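Bug #77: duplicate submission created two jobs. Keeping one. Sequence:
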Amino acid sequence: MPVEPPPSAWSFGDPTSFDDLDDLVAIGADLAPGTLLAAYRHGLFPMPSGTPGDPMYWFSPVHRGVLPLDGLVVSRSLRRACRDHEIRVDTAFAEVLDACADPRRDSGWIDEDIRAAYTRLHDLGWAHSVEAWRDDRLVGGLYGVAIGGLFAGESMFHRERDASKVALVGLVERLRDRYADDRVLDVQWCTPHLATLGVIEVPRAAYLRRLPVALAVPAAEAFA
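Kept job's structure:
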């Protein structure tokens, strides 16, 4: 079972009062486990500004990227790739996080502060990795935060074609249970790539209405 950390010293306020024209809703605070969990429970997530020494930025997208669990698009080639890989959960969290943070990747945003913060969340049982393995090698994966029926995806990587997508299929399969209708698989923003996999945009207000319902259901067995 996840360990609830001390509560945050910070308040994110009423998320329904956020500016409906701006994804950036807060600046500052810290990355303590209690602060991170409070943020996700309010519909926010952190990202560094990219400038050393700047305070942390907190986002609640006006148009939230969400993957409906019954809407994942699995092509024929992806289905074949799934048969060639083994899915594991939380067996290589640090390696998945390091791969996602690789500075050689375009638009890399995971810095040492983020890495340390999510490692702490993992140690407490809140952050998880879903991994695609082939021939006993880690070839793709993703990590995110699971709070009740919310899985907030943070980043994914691949070392072989379609391996990150295989991990996503593995995640969706593990979220499809008797609470599936109430679960939320949050991917932050809907990119053109994610849209091809079935990700849709949900208005912030609709996301915030769904969030307490998701938080109230038990975590999926893989992440409990």
